[in-house]
């Protein structure tokens, strides 16, 4: 297995500096942004909390079908799922404790507010647009690995447990191992 797609840690990713890091106008061409590989998914940050003064971040995710993403909750992060292409099943536990899921198809939208346990499973190869509370878009870079390539289909990057815990703590997120879903 080769790892030439990963950013050279000594140099940093080729995309470094593509986002202004301040609330200035800017534009990105197709395929541009800050890329990170996490498991089989390619995440690309298009707009970070640095550009929105911490208000929100925008990213895309290109995901192959796979296992259920572990159930988790964010202390302060609201999360938007907008499916550009494919099918993604989102599982959520409401504030009343009801567990439900919804299959999102191309053009469908979902919102999970901060504090609610949730998970998702990519049912078909998918592209999603995500909007999150500012700063959380960096989670995927911290738990995953920055990559120079914006192309999907790269070898998976599987973080060790310590890296997963550190990223979750830094972004005020908890993995909830004891939550199960009736239709998962």
Automatic annotation (TrEMBL):
Keyword Mitochondrion: no
Recorded GO MF terms: dioxygenase activity
Entry-linked InterPro entries: Cupin_2, QDO-like, RmlC-like_jellyroll, RmlC_Cupin_sf
CDD domains tied to this protein: cupin_QDO_N_C
Domain annotation Cupin type-2: ranges: 63-129
Signal peptide: none
UniProt KW keywords: Dioxygenase, Oxidoreductase
Protein name: Quercetin 2,3-dioxygenase
Organism: Pseudonocardia kunmingensis
Lineage: Bacteria, Bacillati, Actinomycetota, Actinomycetes, Pseudonocardiales
